[in-house]
């Protein structure tokens, strides 16, 4: 499937980002980009509309498939992701909106996005097919910001 051709991260929603960083540093020998706080992050949910998530996020510096850790405050928009799976894979896409619509035509379901359908889902969208895997489509437009973060 073309959606998996540009994978760049494997994401995990964790309860304690700093404990998870320490465990994975020891187990895998990775080091981490700075933890960033998104408080709040506006998220569009198909069944709810606009919602919020309160997140702390980091990536392993090592790649090419980076580990992304997300600590989400319970009761926020990322509960819908955790309800399906605490794990996802992230892939770059040139056009989030077109990619979301293409996958939905193939039977995928939208879980959450950075914007509403009216605004072409923004620069990120989480999709699932059946029981998984969860795929995060990430707009190429934010790649420079992510790459700067990894080098910080």
Structural commentary:
The chain is of the alpha+beta class and 152 residues long. The protein has helices spanning 17-28, 79-84, 96-105, 143-151; strands spanning 7-14, 36-45, 49-59, 66-72, 87-93, 109-113, 124-128, 134-139. The protein has a single domain, classed as 2,3-Dihydroxybiphenyl 1,2-Dioxygenase, domain 1 (Roll), CATH 3.10.180. It contains four helices and eight strands. β7 and β8 (134-139) form a beta hairpin. The radius of gyration is 15 Å and the shape is globular. The N and C termini lie far apart (33 Å). The model has no long low-confidence stretch (mean pLDDT 96).
CATH superfamily: 2,3-Dihydroxybiphenyl 1,2-Dioxygenase, domain 1
CATH C-level category? Alpha Beta
Q: Span between N and C termini?
A: 33 Å
Beta fraction: 35-45%
The average pLDDT value, as a whole number, equals: 96
Number of helices: 4
Identify the overall geometry.
globular
| Rounded radius of gyration (Å) | 15 Å
Number-wise, the strands total 8
Q: Name the CATH architecture.
A: Roll
**Strand sequence of the main sheet, in spatial order?**
2-3-4-1-5-8-7-6
| SSE string, helices as H and strands as E | EHEEEHEHEEEH
Count of the domains: 1
CATH topology: 2,3-Dihydroxybiphenyl 1,2-Dioxygenase, domain 1
Structural class: alpha+beta
Major beta-sheet overview: 8 strands, mixed
**What is the helical fraction, as a range of percent?**
10-25%
List low-confidence stretches: none
């Amino acid at each position: 499937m073309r959606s998996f051709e540009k994978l760049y991260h494997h994401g995990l929603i964790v309860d304690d980002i700093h404990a998870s960083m320490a465990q994975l540093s020891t187990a895998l020998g990775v080091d981490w980009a700075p933890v960033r706080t998104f408080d709040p992050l506006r998220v569009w949910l198909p069944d709810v509309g606009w919602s919020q998530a309160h997140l702390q996020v980091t990536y392993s510096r090592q790649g090419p498939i980076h580990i992304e850790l997300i600590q989400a405050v319970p009761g926020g928009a990322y509960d819908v992701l955790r309800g399906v799976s605490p794990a996802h894979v992230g892939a770059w896409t040139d056009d989030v909106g077109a990619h979301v619509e293409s996958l939905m035509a193939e039977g995928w379901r939208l879980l959450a996005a950075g914007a509403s359908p009216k605004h072409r889902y923004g620069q990120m969208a989480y999709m699932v097919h059946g029981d998984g895997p969860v795929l995060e489509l990430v707009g190429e437009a934010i790649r420079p910001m992510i790459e700067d973060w990894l080098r910080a």
